[in-house]
Amino acid sequence: MTDVLAPVAGRLLPLSAVPDQVFAGEMVGSGVAIEPSVPADGADAVVTAPVAGTVLKLHPHAVIVLSGDGVGVLVHIGIDTVNLNGEGFTVIATEKAAVEAGDPLIAFSPSGIRDRGLSAICPVVIMDSKPGSITGLQERDVAAGDFVFAV
């Protein structure tokens, strides 16, 4: 079993809450979503590695970490944020780097995304998993690093 940790602080929600049919319909895989909170000090929010492993793909708006047992976890920062062309994101990690769960990967401003009229919600998806395979979600506030589910 692989424990998947919250990659960002905020409100844990079902994937169906994501305003995008590809994610909400679990076409990429099953998972959860986190509506990120704005840090009290006004600093950028930081996406951390949800599992220990290797950074398989890294973009300013998304990252995939492949765990040691072959579980690929996608964290997508916001919806339609690819159109920002990296503006408002700070990439901290490097592709192909080994990471521990909780290591910082990308910093971003949830307010900055929302100010552009976009959703800042962050889908956390197990790549290529069957729809409905992540169950038992209880909506709650989470801190980065909190246990979310196991696969």
TrEMBL record:
The keyword Transport applies. One of its GO terms (biological process) is phosphoenolpyruvate-dependent sugar phosphotransferase system. The keyword Transferase applies. It holds the Pfam family PTS_EIIA_1. One of its GO terms (molecular function) is kinase activity. Keywords: Kinase, Phosphotransferase system, Sugar transport, Transferase, Transport. Residues 20-128 form the PTS EIIA type-1 domain. It comes from the Bacteria. It is found in: Cytoplasm. One of its GO terms (cellular component) is cytoplasm. NCBIfam families: PTBA. This is PTS glucose transporter subunit IIA. It comes from Tsukamurella sputi. The lineage of its organism: Bacteria, Bacillati, Actinomycetota, Actinomycetes, Mycobacteriales.
